[in-house]
Design a protein that fits this description.
Blueprint: E1 15-21, H1 25-33, E2 42-48, H2 58-63, E3 70-72, E4 76-78, E5 83-86, E6 91-96, E7 99-104, H3 114-126, E8 131-134, H4 143-151, E9 155-159, H5 168-175, E10 181-183, H6 188-201, H7 204-207, H8 210-224, H9 233-247, H10 252-261, H11 263-273, H12 284-299, E11 307-313, H13 319-332, E12 340-347, H14 350-358, E13 360-361, H15 371-377, E14 378-381, E15 384-387, H16 389-393, E16 395-399, E17 411-416, H17 425-438, E18 439-447, E19 460-464, E20 469-472, H18 501-504, H19 508-516, E21 521-525, E22 530-533, E23 546-547, H20 552-555, H21 561-569, E24 577-586, E25 589-599, E26 604-613, H22 643-710, E27 714-719, E28 724-727, H23 755-768, E29 772-777, E30 784-793, E31 800-808, H24 810-839, E32 843-847, E33 853-856, H25 858-864, H26 868-871, H27 876-879, H28 884-897, E34 901-910, E35 913-929, E36 932-942, H29 944-981, H30 986-1008, E37 1013-1015, H31 1016-1020, H32 1025-1028, E38 1033-1036, E39 1041-1043, H33 1044-1063, E40 1073-1082, E41 1087-1096, H34 1109-1121, E42 1125-1131, E43 1134-1142
Parallel strand pairs: 1-2, 1-8, 2-5, 3-5, 8-9, 9-10, 11-12, 11-17, 12-16, 17-18, 38-40
Antiparallel strand pairs: 4-7, 6-7, 13-15, 14-15, 18-20, 19-20, 21-22, 21-26, 22-23, 24-25, 25-26, 27-28, 27-31, 29-30, 30-31, 32-33, 32-36, 34-35, 35-36, 37-39, 40-41, 41-43, 42-43
Length: 1160
C-alpha cells in the first residue's frame, strides 16, 4: 500500500456529518444550521432523543431556518449531499454502505443510546472521512461514539459546554479526549469548511518523507518520552494530517514550527495518536471462548500458595483487565482452593491509567456487562458504577511501553488486542518476542480479531483460529534486545565462592576498582535488605557505608524511597535488569538520577545509581516524568559480529523479506476475494430488495382485496369494454351479480336502477377520462343512490376501465328534507325572537363572553340614548361607562356560575338622561348551549317613576299616620274630658281610654309597614311585657308576620285579657304570672293556630254569673273578624283562654285592615 493514499484529497462530493443532540438540542441545531450556505457538499444526519409516543416537530421547525431540505428518515434512505436527515421517534438510525437505516430500538427506554449507535456506524462506514458533532444534552450518549470516530481517524467537534443549554453530553465527550475542537455552534460550519479545504492543501509528498516523520516522532519523544517511530507510517501520517487540517496548517515546516513553539501541541498529537477505545466484554464471543477454553486451564491444579499472572498491554482505561478479572473470579468460585491472582494492566497514556485506577465508569456499562456480573462486582453510584474492592485488588496498573520497557515474567495469559495493528512489521516481530519471553511455556496469548502472528512461527501455536488465541510453545525464552547494565557489575566466581560483600571486596585490586571507578552501588539480599553499600552510595542513604542487614526502603533517602520501592517490587528473572529515573534536588544540585536493579540470582540483587547533574537550562534530552517506566536503559554496544554470523543474519533477513512479499501477495489475493464477496453480497442485497418488492406488491394486492371485501359501499369495477371485473358484496343489493358474471357486459346484468343511463355515464367517463356523479332512483321510487363514476388506468399500456360507487342516500335525503324543515322552523323562530325583541316594551339585550352586545332591542337602545346599531359589537361599559361596575359584575357572575340573578337594582345616568338619575330593575339569565353558558341575557325595567311614587306614598302615609294619631289624641282628650265631668262613670271611661290607646298602638305599628303586616311579637309585647314586665309574663311561640286584620284583632283581645287580669286576675297582686303561648297544628284536615292564655298565682277565681264587656269584646273580635273560636275557663288557680284560628286568617296578605268589634 502506498502511503500517499492515506492523505489524498478528501474534499469529495459528499461529506457525511453525524450530529447528536438531546435536551436543549433544538436551539443548538437552529444555531448550527443558521450558518449553512445556500450550496454545500454536506449531508447532516441528526439524532436527537425524542419521545417515541409523540410526533416530532423537529423537521418543521428546522425547515423554517434553512433552504437545505430536511427529511425524516423512514426505514432506509440513500444519503445525498445538501440534505438534513432526522431520526424518527421511537427509531434507531445508523449508516451502512452510505445508506441511512432506521430500525426499532433493541433496548427498552432508559438504556437506549441512539447517538452512540449513529457515531459508531458512521465510523465503521466512513472510517477516516467520518465527522461527528456533539451538541447540547444531558447524560453521556455519544461519548463512546466519538471514541470510535477518532479511532478510525475521523473528525470530532464538541459544542462549548458554557454555551450549551445542557452541558452533560458535551462535557462527557470532552472527558474522553477523543475530540478535535470545542466550538460555539455558530462557528462549526465555518470550521468544517476550513477543515476539508485544508485537507486538500496538505502537502502529501512532504508528509510522506522519512525526514518529516522522524522530526515529528523525535519531538513527541522529546516532549512526552514516548517513541512512535515504530508505528505504521500510514497511521501516523493520517493522524498528523487530521491535526494539521484542524489547525489550518498545510505545509510540513509550519507544523514542525508549531511543535517547537507550542509545548502543548506534542501532547495533543500524542493523544490523537493514542485512541483509547475499549469496553467491557468487547467482542463477547471472544470472551466466551476465553472463559470456556483458556481460563479453566489457568485455574486447574493451582494451590493456595500459587499465582495466576495475567498481563494486559495497552489496557487503556482498564475495562478489559477488569473483564478478565471477573471471568477468573467466576472460575475460582467453582474450585475448592483458590490461588492468588495478579492482573497487570499497562499503557503509556497516564490519563487512561488514571481512569483505570479510579475504577469508576458511567451508567452505559450496564449495556456491556451481564446483569448478574454487574450486580456482583460493581457498586452503584449516582453517576454510574464503581468496581468492587475484591476485583480492584487483583488488578494493578502501571505505565509501561512495549517498545522499550522490560516485560513481566512468568505470565500465564497475555491479552493484547488491537494494539499491534498500529505497529510496524519490525515492531510487531519484537512484540512477539516480548510475549514469548514473558509467557510461561504453555501460556496463552490473545490478539485482536484483525491481528495475527508475525515473525518466528516457532514461538506460538494456534489454539483457537476464530478468536485469535495462541499458546506458547515449549522451550527456552528468547533473548531480548534490552538495555543492559555496564561491565562494572560483579560476576559470580567460577569457583563458586561465597558471594557475600566481604568476600567480594577481599581482594585489594577489586576493592580499588569498585571504589575509584564504579558508580554508587548497593548489594541487597533477595528480600531487599542492604548487604553492602559502596562509599559513593553513602550520600543516598541515611547511614554511612559498610555492612548492614536492614531494609533498603528504610535506609534510602526519603526522596528516593518511592523509586527504589517500585524497583524492588518489580518482578524479575535472574539476570534481568530494570531502571527508573528520579529527577530532583540532592545536596543542593538538580540531578537526573538513573537507578538500576539487576537480579544476580535467587539470593542476591544489585542496585546501581548513576548521577546526571543538570547544569541549568533544559537538557537537550527529553525529560522523563518522575516514575516513568524504565525508558532510558543504557545499551552498551556489542562487539562486531564475525563475517560468518553477518552472512547468516543477511541470509535470514533476505528470507524474511521474501516471506513478507509472499504474505503481501497472499493479502492481495484475500483482498480480491473480499471484494468478490462484497460484490456478491451487494447482488444478494439487490435480489433481496427485488424479492421484498414482490412481497410488497403481493401484500398490497391482499390489502386491496381485503378492502374490497370489508367496505360496505357498493363498488363495481369495469374494464374498458364495460365488462365486469370486480364488485363488492354490497353491490348485489342493486345488481343481480354472481361470481360467474365476471367478464360479462354490464348491459347483460339486471339492476334495480336505470342501467341504460348508468352505462351511458360509464362510457362518457371512459372516453373523456373525467369523473361524473349523478343521483339515481330505484324502480320502487322509495330508495335513492348517488353514483360516482371515475376512470382508472393500469400500469399496462392500453389497459384500464372505470369504477363506480353507489351510495345509498335515502336516509340522507330524508335527513336533508328534515333539515330543511328544521331550518325553516329555526328561521321562523329566529324571526319571532327578532320580532319579540323589536315589539316588546321591556328593554332586552344579549351579551357574549367579552360583555359585548350581540343583540339589542329598541327599548334598551332608548334607555341608553343611542341606536340599536351603535350597540352591536360594543361592550356595555362603552355604551354606559357610568354604570360599569353595576352592570359588569352580575353579567360576569352569570357566565361563571350559570345561575340567574333577578331584581338587581341599577341607578345612574345614561345618554338619554344625562342629568336625571334613573332607576332600573334588572334580571340576568344564562343562555346555555351544549352544557356551556354561551351568552347572557338581560331584561331592564325603568322603575324610576314607581320608586318615586312609592316614596311619595310613604310620605303621604306618614302624614296620614300623623293625622290619625292626632285625631285619636283628640278622641282621648275628649274621653278624658268626659271622664272628669262624669265621675260616676269614671271606671268605664278609663277602660275606654285604654282600649283606644291600645288600638292606636296597633294602628301605628301597621302604618309603618304600609298596612301590609306586622310581626306577632311586636303586636303582643306592647300590651304585656311593656306594661307588666318580662318577669310576670312569659311568651312562647315562633315570631312570624300576621296581616293587619289579625294584628288589630289579636291586639284588642290580648288587651282585654290583660285588663281583666289587672283588675281581677294574676296582675291584681304581686305574685301573679301570665303565660301566653301559641303553636301551629296540622292534622291533615285542618291547619290552625292555637293561642293559650293561662294565669297563675293570682287571687282565687270564680266563674262570673254572666259575660262581661271584655269577654264579649274578645268573642266578637276573634270570632267575627278572624272566624276563630274562643274558649274561656275560670279555674280557682286562674283564668284560661284558648283562641283557635285558621292559619290562612293570619298569613300575610292584602286586606283593608278593617274589623268590626261587634260584628256578632
Amino acid at each position: 500500500m502506498n502511503d500517499n493514499s492515506v492523505v489524498s484529497s478528501v474534499a469529495s462530493a459528499l461529506q457525511i456529518v453525524g450530529i447528536g443532540a438531546s435536551a436543549g438540542g433544538l436551539e443548538a441545531l437552529q444555531g448550527f444550521i443558521a450558518g449553512l450556505p445556500s450550496a454545500h457538499n454536506f449531508a447532516f444526519v441528526v439524532v436527537q432523543h425524542l419521545d417515541p409516543d409523540q410526533e416530532s416537530l423537529l423537521a418543521e421547525l428546522l425547515s423554517k431556518r434553512t433552504e437545505t431540505p430536511v427529511v425524516t428518515v423512514g426505514e432506509k434512505q440513500k444519503i445525498e449531499a445538501q440534505h438534513i436527515y432526522l431520526i424518527a421517534p421511537g427509531q434507531s438510525l445508523t449508516i451502512k454502505d452510505g445508506m441511512l437505516i432506521s430500525t426499532e430500538f433493541e433496548h427498552p427506554r432508559g438504556r437506549r443510546r441512539p447517538i452512540d449507535a449513529l457515531f459508531e456506524s458512521l465510523a465503521a462506514d466512513q472510517k477516516s472521512e467520518a465527522v461527528a458533532i456533539v451538541l447540547s444534552g444531558t447524560g453521556s450518549d455519544g461519548s463512546n461514539g466519538v471514541k470510535a470516530v477518532k479511532e478510525g481517524g475521523g473528525l470530532v467537534f464538541v459544542q462549548e459546554p458554557e454555551e450549551a443549554k445542557y452541558d452533560g453530553m458535551p462535557r462527557s465527550a470532552i472527558e474522553t479526549s477523543a475530540y478535535d475542537l470545542v466550538l460555539p455552534v455558530g462557528e462549526m460550519v465555518s470550521a468544517l469548511n476550513d477543515y476539508f479545504a485544508n485537507m486538500d492543501d496538505v502537502e502529501v509528498d512532504t508528509l510522506t518523507s522519512v525526514e518529516f516523520l522522524e522530526r515529528v516522532t523525535k519531538h513527541i519523544r522529546y516532549r512526552t518520552g514516548h517513541d512512535f517511530s515504530s508505528y505504521k507510517p500510514a497511521t501516523l501520517l493520517r493522524r498528523i494530517a487530521v491535526r494539521m487540517s484542524v489547525l489550518g496548517i498545510s505545509d510540513a515546516n509550519s507544523y514542525i514550527r508549531r511543535l517547537v513553539e507550542n509545548s502543548d501541541e506534542a501532547s495533543r498529537l500524542f493523544k490523537d495518536i493514542l485512541i483509547n477505545v475499549t469496553s467491557f466484554f468487547r467482542d463477547p464471543d471472544v470472551f466466551e471462548a476465553l472463559q470456556a477454553d483458556v481460563i479453566p486451564k489457568l485455574v486447574e491444579g493451582r494451590g493456595r500458595d500459587q499465582e495466576i499472572r495475567v498481563w494486559v498491554p495497552g489496557c487503556s482505561t482498564g475495562q478489559e483487565a477488569y473483564t478478565i478479572g471477573m471471568l477468573i473470579s467466576e472460575a475460582l468460585e467453582r474450585t475448592e482452593v483458590a490461588p492468588q491472582v495478579s492482573i497487570f494492566g499497562t499503557d503509556i497514556d497516564d490519563d487512561a491509567l488514571r481512569v483505570a485506577r479510579l475504577a469508576q465508569y458511567p451508567n452505559t456499562i450496564a449495556d456491556e456487562i451481564p446483569g448478574d456480573l454487574l450486580a456482583k462486582y460493581f457498586r452503584s453510584r449516582s453517576d454510574g458504577y464503581e468496581v468492587g474492592t475484591a476485583l480492584r485488588d487483583m488488578v494493578r496498573f502501571s505505565n509501561q511501553s512495549l517498545c522499550k520497557d522490560p516485560p513481566f515474567a512468568r505470565i500465564d495469559l497475555i491479552s493484547c488486542r488491537n494494539v499491534l495493528i498500529y505497529f510496524s512489521s519490525e515492531m510487531q516481530k519484537s512484540a512477539m518476542r516480548v510475549f514469548q519471553y514473558a509467557l510461561k511455556p504453555g501460556g496463552h496469548l490473545l490478539l485482536g480479531t484483525s491481528e495475527s502472528l508475525t515473525g518466528d512461527d516457532n514461538l506460538f501455536e494456534e489454539s483457537h483460529r476464530a478468536h485469535r488465541i495462541f499458546t506458547r510453545r515449549p522451550g527456552p525464552s528468547v533473548k531480548l534486545n534490552l538495555p543492559r547494565m555496564g561491565g562494572f557489575l560483579p560476576q559470580q566466581s567460577p569457583m563458586g565462592r561465597d558471594p557475600s560483600a566481604s568476600s567480594v571486596l577481599s581482594e585489594p585490586f577489586a576493592e580499588a576498582i569498585l571504589t575509584d571507578f564504579a558508580p554508587p552501588f548497593l548489594f541487597l539480599s533477595h528480600i531487599g535488605d542492604l548487604v553492602y553499600a559502596s562509599d559513593a552510595a553513602a550520600k543516598y542513604l541515611k547511614m554511612k557505608g559498610g555492612s548492614a542487614k536492614l531494609s533498603i526502603t528504610k535506609l534510602i533517602r526519603p526522596e528516593l524511597e518511592p523509586t527504589v520501592r517500585r524497583l524492588i517490587n518489580t518482578k524479575l528473572a535472574p539476570g534481568d535488569v530494570t531502571s527508573l529515573y528520579h529527577e530532583g534536588e540532592i545536596d543542593g544540585k538538580v540531578v537526573r538520577l538513573e537507578v538500576s536493579r539487576k537480579l544476580l540470582n535467587d539470593d542476591q540483587q544489585l542496585l546501581v545509581l548513576k548521577d546526571h547533574y543538570l547544569s541549568g537550562g533544559q537538557d537537550e534530552r527529553p525529560l522523563l516524568p518522575e516514575g516513568d517506566a524504565s525508558r532510558a536503559y543504557t545499551q552498551e554496544l556489542e562487539l562486531e559480529l564475525d563475517n560468518a554470523r553477518q552472512t547468516i543474519r543477511t541470509t535470514i533477513e533476505e528470507l524474511e523479506t521474501s516471506n513478507e512479499e509472499l504474505k503481501s501477495s497472499n493479502e492481495e489475493m484475500m483482498s480480491m476475494n473480499e471484494e468478490l464477496q462484497s460484490a456478491n453480497e451487494e447482488l444478494t442485497t439487490s435480489n433481496d430488495e427485488l424479492n421484498s418488492k414482490i412481497l410488497e406488491i403481493r401484500d398490497i394486492n391482499a390489502d386491496l382485496s381485503g378492502l374490497i371485501e370489508s367496505t360496505q359501499i357498493a363498488t363495481v369495477f369495469l374494464d374498458s369494454s364495460l365488462k365486469l371485473r370486480r364488485f363488492t358484496p354490497d353491490a348485489k343489493n342493486l345488481f343481480r351479480f354472481a361470481k360467474q358474471d365476471i367478464g360479462r357486459a354490464l348491459s347483460d346484468i339486471g339492476s334495480s336502477i336505470d342501467i341504460d343511463r348508468l352505462i351511458e355515464i360509464c362510457s362518457t367517463v371512459s372516453e373523456r377520462g373525467m369523473a361524473l356523479e349523478e343521483e339515481f332512483e330505484d324502480k320502487s321510487g322509495e330508495n335513492f343512490y348517488r353514483v360516482r363514476v371515475v376512470p382508472y388506468r393500469s400500469d399496462k399500456v392500453g389497459d384500464g376501465g372505470v369504477v363506480f360507487t353507489c351510495i345509498d342516500i335515502t336516509e340522507l335525503r330524508q335527513y336533508a328534507l328534515e333539515a330543511e324543515r328544521n331550518a325553516e322552523l329555526v328561521k321562523q323562530g329566529v324571526a319571532e325572537i327578532e320580532e319579540l325583541y323589536r315589539v316588546t316594551p321591556q328593554a332586552m339585550a344579549l351579551l357574549d363572553h367579552d360583555l359585548r352586545y350581540i343583540r339589542v332591542n329598541p327599548g334598551l337602545a332608548e334607555i341608553n340614548g343611542t341606536s340599536v346599531e351603535a350597540h352591536m359589537g360594543k361592550r356595555m361599559d362603552d355604551i354606559v361607562p357610568g354604570l360599569r361596575e353595576q352592570v359588569n359584575r352580575p353579567a360576569i357572575s352569570v357566565f361563571e356560575t350559570g345561575v340567574a340573578l333577578e331584581g338587581l337594582r341599577v341607578t345612574g345616568y345614561t345618554a338619554a338622561h344625562p342629568e336625571d338619575e334613573r332607576i332600573w330593575d334588572t334580571d340576568w339569565y344564562p343562555v346555555v348551549y351544549n352544557g356551556v353558558v354561551s351568552s347572557v341575557g338581560v331584561n331592564v325595567r325603568d322603575v324610576t317613576e314607581q320608586v318615586r311614587t312609592a316614596a311619595e306614598l310613604k310620605r303621604v302615609m306618614h302624614e296620614l299616620q300623623h293625622r290619625v294619631k292626632n285625631m285619636l289624641s283628640n278622641v282621648m282628650a275628649l274621653v278624658s274630658r268626659t271622664e272628669r265631668i262624669a265621675t260616676a262613670d269614671k271606671p268605664l271611661l278609663e277602660d275606654l281610654s285604654k282600649r283606644l290607646e291600645a288600638l292606636a298602638q296597633t294602628h301605628q305599628l301597621l302604618t309603618r309597614s304600609n298596612w301590609t303586616s306586622a310581626p306577632l311579637l311586636n303586636v303582643l309585647e306592647p300590651e304585656l311585657t311593656a306594661v307588666y314586665g318580662t318577669d310576670r309574663v312569659t311568651l312562647k311561640g315562633r315570631n312570624f308576620p300576621i296581616n293587619s286584620r289579625a294584628a288589630l284583632s289579636l291586639g284588642m283581645a290580648v288587651h282585654e285579657l290583660a285588663t281583666n287580669a289587672a283588675k281581677y286576675g294574676a296582675f291584681s297582686n304581686d305574685t301573679g304570672h301570665v303565660e301566653l303561648s301559641w303553636v301551629r297544628q296540622d292534622d291533615g284536615t285542618e291547619d290552625v293556630f292555637i293561642f293559650t292564655w293561662k294565669e297563675r298565682g293570682g287571687p282565687t277565681v270564680t266563674k262570673p254569673d254572666g259575660a262581661g264587656f271584655g269577654t264579649t269584646l274578645i268573642s266578637s273580635t276573634i270570632e267575627g273578624s278572624l272566624r276563630g273560636k274562643v274558649k274561656m275557663s275560670w279555674e280557682p288557680a286562674g283564668v284560661s283562654c284558648v283562641l283557635t284560628i285558621n292559619a290562612d286568617e293570619l298569613e300575610e296578605k292584602q286586606d283593608d285592615g278593617q274589623f268590626n268589634l261587634f260584628e256578632n
